[in-house]
Write a structure and sequence with these properties.
408 residues, 13 helices, 14 strands, 38% helix, alpha+beta
């Protein structure tokens, strides 16, 4: 494992010739970059030190954690991951990005920035610095990451960013040189519920249609009448009961992981992340027939996975209870401001109060042609209810127009 390096000489970028006192941290874990989680607080759980450490336990990537400290305070941080043998296709640039016609093909030598496995990233910069300084600091870290990868000047991509973070990454990428500048790709969407009021009744009242409010109450009553019960359990004590349930869901959607493989992954999460894990287990008597695993971080609850024993389910809206109702109640009980429901199954999530957000990738490679962007937006929006489909499409178009106005 690489030892921590702290550089205090001028890196040749924005600080060249400056009298400012700075330090560049280059570490094998985010815990070795003082102040990492202070910057990650208020950002996605998937850029927190605990998750990044867990993601590295798969031993697929060689990860590097960088931080820029000025005057003894961390002002910017960045994770980079060299994973030419990445097993998750959605974290392989060549399989995820669609370049414009005539652009060079993508090979496997693309450096991933911003984390792995979470399908949501975030820019780690101090909130009190202006955009120009943030872009300069981030550019310095990207420059260092690409310069110390397996090949100097390696191509990079930063996937699963919300629109506001793209602004900063694009500004940073523009400072790195290159004839065409960085490219922007639409790579998906996720769903969040902003917690309103003080009880779940306030959430129901805020649903936009009478039909959605009625359905929410009906599925709540149907579950209560079924005799099933949701209880919170601890992950280290119950992971061995959950691998089979998780495998059943994964196999239903075409993934091949076995119950043993997924159980081992849950065991590692129990070992690494128990203090942040929240497990909702659906019991039929003494038997667990479904579960949802979520993580609490910085005022937000992030739903990670769900699992079911399909043969034992009575059909009482178990998915809705585990994926939305129970986590939402937890948010109200613990004063959390947001429930992050992740990607996919947009219809079910939106009808229960979630709003979709576009997710983007910024890359040193070329961007897509406009037609490709439009096709991707239509494909994603088609799986959402009409109101949310319109909102999602408007967000994509608004962001794209803004970036085009900046010449990006």
């Amino acid at each position: 494992m690489r030892n921590l390096r702290c550089l205090e000489a001028e890196p040749g970028g924005v600080f060249a010739g400056s009298a400012v006192r700075w330090r560049l941290f280059d570490a094998a874990t985010p815990y070795d970059v003082p102040g990492w989680d202070e910057l990650a607080s208020g950002r996605s759980f998937y850029v927190a030190a605990d998750w990044l450490r867990f993601a590295d336990t798969d031993r697929v990537a060689r990860s590097q954690y960088l931080g820029l400290s000025i005057g003894g305070r961390l002002v910017a941080a960045l994770s980079s991951h060299w994973a030419p043998n990445e097993v998750d296709a959605d974290y392989v640039a060549a399989r995820t990005l669609e370049l414009a016609p005539g652009a060079p093909s993508i090979n496997d030598d693309v450096l991933t920035l911003g984390g792995r496995r979470g399908f949501l990233s975030g820019v780690l910069v101090a909130p009190d610095i202006d955009r120009s300084a943030a872009a300069e600091h981030l550019a310095e870290l990207i420059r260092h990451a690409t310069g110390t990868a397996s090949a100097r000047g390696v191509a990079w991509w930063w996937p699963y960013l919300i629109s506001s973070d793209v602004d900063v990454v694009m500004a940073a990428g523009s400072r790195l040189g290159g004839a065409a500048g960085p490219g922007i790709h639409l790579v998906g969407a996720d769903c969040v519920i902003d917690v309103v009021g003080t009880t779940i009744d306030d959430h129901v009242a805020a649903l936009p249609t009478r039909q959605r409010r009625t359905n929410f109450r009906r599925e709540e009553k149907r579950f209560i009448d079924s005799g099933l019960e949701i209880r919170r359990v601890n992950l280290p004590g119950y992971w061995s009961h959950l691998g089979f349930l998780l495998a059943a869901v994964q196999q239903k959607y075409g993934h091949r992981q076995s119950a043993g493989e997924l159980g081992a992954r849950l065991r590692r999460q129990g070992e690494q992340l128990a203090s942040r894990a929240v497990v909702f287990a659906c019991f039929d008597g003494d038997i667990i027939v479904g579960f949802a695993l979520a993580y609490e971080w910085a005022g937000e609850l992030t739903l990670r996975v769900v699992g079911f024993d399909y043969e034992r389910l009575p059909g009482a809206g178990e998915y809705a209870q585990l994926a939305v109702h129970a986590p939402l109640r937890y948010c109200y009980q613990h004063g959390l401001r947001r429930l992050h429901l992740g990607t996919e199954t947009y219809e079910a999530k939106c009808r229960r109060g979630a709003r979709p957000r576009p997710l983007w990738a910024v890359t040193s490679l070329p961007g897509p042609d406009p037609g490709s962007l439009a096709r991707t937006a239509r494909r994603i929006a088609a799986s959402m209810p009409a109101h949310e489909s319109e909102s999602f499409t408007a967000q994509v178009e608004q962001s794209w127009r803004r970036w085009a106005a900046f010449g990006w």
